[in-house]
Each structure stands twice: as C-alpha cells, then as structure tokens.
Amino acid sequence: MPADLIFDAHLDLACLAVRGRDMTTSVERDAAPWPPASVSLPALAAGGVRFALATIFTEPVAADAATVGPEQYRSGDTEGAHRRGRAQLEVYLTWRDRGLLAIDLPACLRADASVGEFRGGMGAARPIPFPLEKRIARLGPSPPLHIGLLMEGADPVREPSELSWWHERGVGTIGLTWARSSRYAGGNAAPDGLTDAGRQLVREIDRLNMTHDVSHLSDRSFAELIERSEFPGGVVASHSNCRALLGDHANQRHLSDAQIRHVVARDGVIGLNLYSKFLVPASRPANGDDGEPVRATIAECLAHVDHICSLAGDTRHVGLGSDMDGGFGADQLPDVIDGPGDLARLSEGLSERGWSDGDVANFAWRNWARFYARES
Fold first, then answer.
1. Domain count, the chain
2. What is the rounded (10 degree) CA torsion for 82, 83, 85, 89?
3. Alpha helix ranges (H) inside the chain
4. How far does Cα 233 stand from its chain's mean position?
5. Residue 318: inside a domain, yes or no?
6. Closest C-alpha to 220, from 259, 249, 193
7. Is the residue at 130 inside a domain?
8. Cα separation, 146 vs 106, whole angstroms
9. Residue 92 half-sphere exposure, CB side, CA atoms within 13 Å?
C-alpha cells in the first residue's frame, strides 16, 4: 500500500460546490467560501485521499431569516431542506457521471472476488477472499476518489419512509441532526432528545442496515439512540474529538469518555476533527498575540488519537474525519497542515511516537476501510 494512502471520513465537498467553489480544479487560496481554501478534488488526489465519506450537509436557520445560503433552509421548511439536500446529491451524481469519483463505498472494499478456492470440512468449495490491500490495489488509479455519502442532518428526508430513496442513491451513513435540533433529534447546541419521527427514522436506518453517525448529537439524543438501536449497520463518530482533553465538559460537540466507550463497544470508529478550536484545550488562549486564531499542534492532534486508543485498548477505533474547509479556513487547521497534501504529517507524528507501520495504517486508512468492508 502507498505510505500516504488516506481515508477521510468527513468532507463537505458538495457544500463547497454549491457555495461556489470549482471543486474540479487546483485550489485557489482565496477561493470562497471560508478562505484560505485547501480542498478540491485534485488536491485530495494529490494528498493521497483515496477514500472519503462525502457529506450532504444542510443547515437550519431561523424561520424568519431574511436570506438563506445555498445549503441552508428555514427551520420547519421540510420541502426547503429536501431541495437543499437533493441539490447536493446532484453534485455528486454529476461528478460521478463525469468520472471524477465513484459513489461505491462500501462495495469497492468488500470481498466480492477471490484468489482461489478451498474445500471445507464438508467438501464444499468456498472462495478465498482477496485481502483488503489487494482489493484496494486492483481498483487502479481511476477514478482517484471513492466515496460513500454521509447525510449530516437528516431533515432532507421528508419522512422516514423516504429514506430508502436516498439509500438507493448512495447514502449509507446518516447523522440525525447537525448542531441545532432537526425534526428528528436534538443536536449538540440543543438539549433535546429524539423526537417521535426520530425514533421512527432510527428504526428505518436499522432496517436498511445503514450506519449511524453520532457526531453532533446532544448527550440526550446519543443516550436514547444507544438504548433504541442494536446498530446492525454499525455506529461511527465521523468527526469528533475527546471532551476530556478540552477542559470544557459542558460542550456536547465532543465525545465524553463514556460515549467513546459506547462507540468502541460496537466496533465503531471515531474520526479526528482537524478544526483547531476542537483540538486546543480551553486553558490555552483562543487567539495569539497577533489576534489570529491559535492553530493546534500536531502533538495536540495526536493527544486525542492516543486518548481514544487508551480507552479502546488498541489502535482499531480511530481514524481521520478532518472536516477540512467545513465552515472554516485552512488558517484554522493545525499549524503544519494547510491542505490534503500535509495530512501525512499526522502519520509521521504517530511513527515518531513509536507506532508500528501497521498501527499507523490503521489510523490513516485501514480502520475506516475495515469498518465499511464489514471485516473484523
């Protein structure tokens, strides 16, 4: 496997596109939205990002808001949320049709071919599956990016029975809400739990064997989801860090140790979010002497990785969920990471901490790939 192979479990690619960025060309640093910019499809390819969860991200705003952005909808506007979600889905389908990416996670990772046959104890021939590395190698260089669709905030789904329509078009992972409450659940900026519609949607997610993303859930919503789902499609936190390291224990955007253990116990994966504000302890000033936002160090990033591993007892439950350019610019990424081409700095830092090559690969790509390949 290439040393720089990366699986990034959280990228708002379509949101950037509907906001006006040309995602098919090299990145212009002053490109909207949220400059300085770092992400485009060519930039991801150059940085070794071969696999990703790409979001359909929609944001509720006040019902009486005078204007709404292209990814936003007024609270309570069910049809507006649906239209915003459909527009982002169309972005991905267009890129797929142009050969710029494939919407084929998890199928491209699964053992659907064999290297031969062996005969079991009863004499029946069975396939010997390709190892995961060989499955990736046989994909070839084109298209450069293989994605699964992650719906970040479920309001585009007008009613639970509609979820199968989205699933058929590539949505395999779903978060019930964003920071603010949705029609389905309370978010990390709201104390609410699951609504009646949310409980119905949980059942439908499970029926379709889809994956739950618990990033952005309020503590109450998280607890109710744990009680109500057996997670047949698995559970992840696509872009969340460790509450215990941030010194702000009231901030439900980050996972408590108990929540991390719940995800680990269900063999899920947690993605490291690279927004510096979500990495730097509250005891450190938010701004430097020059007034600019403080950028996290690689050591502060990897402290979150190590904390998850210490709770899990292994390196199999943590990966990358960068959220790069997801509402903030590259000047708020960690201080030696300015774009996808610098993501290898994280793996280098783990190696310097004494991680084996196999454990580094777990973080960089293998844990997410193994999760979506449904392998132990």
1. 1
2. 130
3. 13-18, 41-46, 78-97, 132-137, 163-168, 196-207, 219-228, 257-265, 298-312, 344-352, 357-361, 367-373
4. 15
5. yes
6. 193
7. no
8. 9
9. 29
Residue 129 pLDDT class (50, 70, 90 cuts):
low
d(CA 150, CA 369): 15
| Measured distance CA(332)–CA(39) in Å, rounded | 14
Q: How many helices (H) and strands (E) does the chain have?
A: 12, 13
Listed in sequence order, the residues at least 6 apart from 268 whose beta carbon sits closer than 8 Å to its beta carbon are 231, 234, 235, 236, 237, 317, 371
Task: Supply the range of the domain harboring residue 78.
Answer: 6-111+145-373
Tokens found for residue 57: 């991200």
pTM of the model: 0.94
The answer to whether the CB of 32 falls within 8 A of the CB of 369 is no
Q: Is residue 124 part of a domain?
A: no
* Structural domain contains residue 51: yes
Alpha-carbon span 332 to 339, nearest angstrom: 11
Query: Residue 284 CA to chain centroid, in angstroms?
Result: 27
Average predicted confidence (pLDDT) for the chain: 93
Handedness of CA 129, 133, 136, 138 (dihedral sign): negative
| Mean pLDDT across 209-231 | 98
Residue 148 backbone phi and psi in degrees, to 5: -115, 150
Burial 35-72 (b: 16+ CB within 10 A, else e): bbbbbbbbbbbbbbbbbbbbbbbbbbbeeeeeebeebb
Q: Give the model's pLDDT for residue 285.
A: 79
Q: Higher-confidence residue: 103 or 124?
A: 103
Q: Which two tokens stand for residue 370?
A: 């193994």
pLDDT at 1: 55
DSSP symbol at 90: H
Residues 6+ apart with CB under 8 A from 256: 219, 243, 244, 249
Q: How far apart are CA 221 and CA 185, in angstroms?
A: 6
Q: Taking a C-beta distance cutoff of 8 angstroms, is the pair 132, 153 a contact?
A: no
> Which residues have a Cβ under 8 Å from the Cβ of 86 and sit 6 or more positions away?
156
Q: Are 147 and 178 in contact (CB under 8 A)?
A: no
CATH code of 339's domain: 3.20.20.140
